[in-house]
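Help wanted!
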Amino acid sequence: MNSFRALGLSLGQLPPGKGCSICDVPGVRVGHRTLVRGSGPGAMRTGVTAIVPPGDPYAEPLPAGAFVLHGHGKAVGLWQLLHLGTLETPILLTNTLATFRCADAVITWVLERHPDARSINPVVLECNDGYLSAIESRPITEGDALAALEAAGEEVEEGCVGAGTGMMAFELKSGIGTASRRAGEWTVGALALPNMGRREDLLFLGRKLDLSGLPRVRREDRGSVVVILATDAPLLPEQLSRLARRGALGLARTGAPASPGSGDFLVAFSTAYRIPRKAVRVKVEFVPDYELGKLYRAAAEATEEAVLSALLSARDMEGRKGVVPALPRELVLT
Amino acid sequence: MNSFRALGLSLGQLPPGKGCSICDVPGVRVGHRTLVRGSGPGAMRTGVTAIVPPGDPYAEPLPAGAFVLHGHGKAVGLWQLLHLGTLETPILLTNTLATFRCADAVITWVLERHPDARSINPVVLECNDGYLSAIESRPITEGDALAALEAAGEEVEEGCVGAGTGMMAFELKSGIGTASRRAGEWTVGALALPNMGRREDLLFLGRKLDLSGLPRVRREDRGSVVVILATDAPLLPEQLSRLARRGALGLARTGAPASPGSGDFLVAFSTAYRIPRKAVRVKVEFVPDYELGKLYRAAAEATEEAVLSALLSARDMEGRKGVVPALPRELVLT
Amino acid sequence: MNSFRALGLSLGQLPPGKGCSICDVPGVRVGHRTLVRGSGPGAMRTGVTAIVPPGDPYAEPLPAGAFVLHGHGKAVGLWQLLHLGTLETPILLTNTLATFRCADAVITWVLERHPDARSINPVVLECNDGYLSAIESRPITEGDALAALEAAGEEVEEGCVGAGTGMMAFELKSGIGTASRRAGEWTVGALALPNMGRREDLLFLGRKLDLSGLPRVRREDRGSVVVILATDAPLLPEQLSRLARRGALGLARTGAPASPGSGDFLVAFSTAYRIPRKAVRVKVEFVPDYELGKLYRAAAEATEEAVLSALLSARDMEGRKGVVPALPRELVLT
Amino acid sequence: MNSFRALGLSLGQLPPGKGCSICDVPGVRVGHRTLVRGSGPGAMRTGVTAIVPPGDPYAEPLPAGAFVLHGHGKAVGLWQLLHLGTLETPILLTNTLATFRCADAVITWVLERHPDARSINPVVLECNDGYLSAIESRPITEGDALAALEAAGEEVEEGCVGAGTGMMAFELKSGIGTASRRAGEWTVGALALPNMGRREDLLFLGRKLDLSGLPRVRREDRGSVVVILATDAPLLPEQLSRLARRGALGLARTGAPASPGSGDFLVAFSTAYRIPRKAVRVKVEFVPDYELGKLYRAAAEATEEAVLSALLSARDMEGRKGVVPALPRELVLT
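Answered by r_m:
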């Protein structure tokens, strides 16, 4: 169970999956590499999170789509993902200035498995953890990225781990959050990395919370959020892009403002079939659009809950510019 | 004041404009033509709403943008609006099957004023009122569309008028709603035509309401919503498209599901400058992106409130397939 | 054979289909309604062309896509076509100011066949024939549009007929042109309505022609072009949008400038399978992207040839503002 | 003069700029870093090319746009470029698997100049030189990328240098090519990195060349092309995206097939004004759309010529899998 459900909370119309995590979609694995070093101006509070699809995505890519709510971000790999409609590598999340080292590490990872690969399309997404972490010191190495991939397992650790280590949202400590929904015979899972919004923006299950007792963590009107959606429903790539759009509805319901400096990226993939690199025909029995209502609701609900669960799983953290407080649970449980 | 404010309600972080209506943007006018005829299977509950920008939009087009949250709709005029970045006619809202007659009427309207016009780009948006109205009887004529344009004034009548006459949202009677926000020195106004969602979807100021006492109005998982945003802030066309995107955040907060059969279209225009048809240079002093945070919040808040105000201004209506109940105010005021 | 092949010309790498026409795709039919009335300032030189897909597109929509090279046009129906990925009606081509009457006529046409239809998405595209035709007199009626649909057959008449009646391209008389290509086991057919470009822009099989002996037909830097592509290859909707993109390569090779006032729209549909309105699953065995090279070349070649064939099939025409000369065949055959 | 003009060739309707190079746009500089090492299976034939805009792009970003003709590529930085409409770093071109190391090097380059930068959006584009170069050995280092930036000057070296070192197009050796056009008072410059097409695809000034005397260089139906456009015309970001679209018309006229495995990316920026990072208003006097015809033609012509000039400036090159022949000049000059 995610941190949200563990507190007895619930949200939306659809039932959660067994673990209420993105790993409820069979075969999806998540791993973290967490860096917490030093304190003061040189403090490092950062990391890498890997979402690893089942099977061999390079030989047998998965159908995939994406939606960019606001594009102030450094996302890597989405042009090809959108034009081919496929995901051919694991997905990494990290901090803004580590994006390209992580992408380079994915090339290493694929070449180790496919030495004859000549074109590789890593997918890496990022948020900026520069309030708590000395982002410009660029501590993340290829080894860190590979370690996150290596660590991937079927349980999602939430909170201040991996890419979530130094993130904050709504001036509260954030981190990694996850959730899932059952939509008929299928499951939709979400993993969120929320790093957006000012205190006034937060909507917790639709409510404004009284955060006046907490220290302000001033920041400009920026911040980003990344969401990864996985499903076992047999959707076409373009339908997965539409699923990703519904994730944005869930973001909006948390109060995410999609502010001008925000990189709000959502990626969705399906494990239901493959588009093998050397196929000459691909058979699929897809769900036509008019039947997608439940899956759309599942994507919106799982995304909203994953964001809230990230807030609830995080703990106070001291870093470069001070302490970012976690969301006090008593505010939520009353 | 709109119907929402008239009940003493409020929403969001920013103050409303003087009338809390799209007409708070100076020069913007709104007119309705309402058709309520007959009862039973042939009942007509439909109409046309006109949003008229100031000045002569054909000679001196206004900068404009749009966002399509989900494109299951018959919207007319948005390709040219998006590629040229301009609005050159008033905007009409109506029912699905009247879209093209209304667009044709706008050609008439422009030719009356500019007999030498040879290319005209009407902007018409629609929702489907086929539950309450015999939409396939196609009662709307050119005269109705011209009457809505003729009726345009600086007060917005809300509720079951104009294009809103036969609409319903969340299985409640809907109609036309409006709202506005002040964002520093500027105003953002919204006019909404909500026609989306099942009862379970509604979020009223973030809350689920207990609608179990009301008769169900069963419908498929369809329905649409149209939002028009106006501002006096000097934004570039692409920035107006981004403003329209933030309207979608407001829609999401009302519970709008963007279901598979939904046409969720948002159009935004600015009255701050003109792009004259024969200009060889256009001077503008625009607000750069990093300064748009408040305007974005204004768009989201005004849109959410315009939808709720549409629900609060509507009254029970009997039509083709039965009665659609208005939202009981007591559910909201407790 | 189209007019281009009838002159013994050829183009590209791939072989043409049997008739070198869009009707080489089994089941696709084309019909025209031509209006040539009066002379002088009130001359009417206009019409409607219908492209009718096989079967009952409303009950069983076809997969479809589109590409907008430049969006200064009034195209109707493409938002839903793109978001649902389906074509549910015949496609009409006509003049700019008749767009919406034609769209309204398609509603009539569908309601005659499906009286219970409540949402209908006509697809209508247009170019501006205002040089030769008194476009502002708006002579096209619902009856004309229905007549074009009624006239649809398996032979494509090219030249100054239907929507092509009053069009011109590169300051030469244009009209309707068609062509097709074989791509392995499949066929790609194109129908073009070219109305773009100044004389200096024309590239005929890559060559500049010496048009100095012809009267100039002055016009602003505007003009549009519409292309419809049909195929029997089993492509996904998004792949059909990519096929339409390759049509734009063919346009470019004719010298089409995509000028600022140009509405350059390309629509593609497949007859290989259906997405029935009430299906809960749709089976398809699609061609994956890496196998699309030949189909892409077929789309580019068929489009280029369809444009040239439109020029070669047209005849001198006198209209509102004077005579527009046809391309002298001797310039091409030397 | 570029290699194309040096042979006495010309193309299009508009006059070239003084040097017929992207550096005809005042302040634009280009630099190369070339790696030619070893032979046989481990041969390295690769490099980096830098396009450096005038001034301090990080403090004062330039308006920018882009067009993706086909997105099978690893382009970095375009989401933010498109959503903000700005270019804030130099642009690097390199081989596919070096993309992310080059992007990481741009972060280093910016941090050296702006130690307080916390969010940096490098723009890096790539083609695959894996036929001539052992791309999987990943020889490009941060130092190479910085060397290309360091080498930037106001003369463009064409041919087998920088990112062009190992590229081929139409089964001929390719490289870096450049060209420019005067459009009234303004200049449009293009720099191309062509790496696309099979022999049968090539159109040289619209003509098929007889390449049967050359050895075939077999390859799959892949390959990419990158084009950078610069102008001193005061265009809005969205207009620069439209300018980039016209570059694609020029590509099409060379026979570029936009094949399924192709990453065809075009980026355009303007030097006419700045959008300073901390501005609260930006004044611009832009050219409205109807006046863009000449600039659009300039972009198409400069792009076509830059591709042809890349072919004419290249020389035979031996590499990993054999020799790729240059285009024999005698085929072109007859």
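OP: Thanks! One thing I noticed: Residues 229 and 268 of chain A are 4 Å apart (CA to CA).
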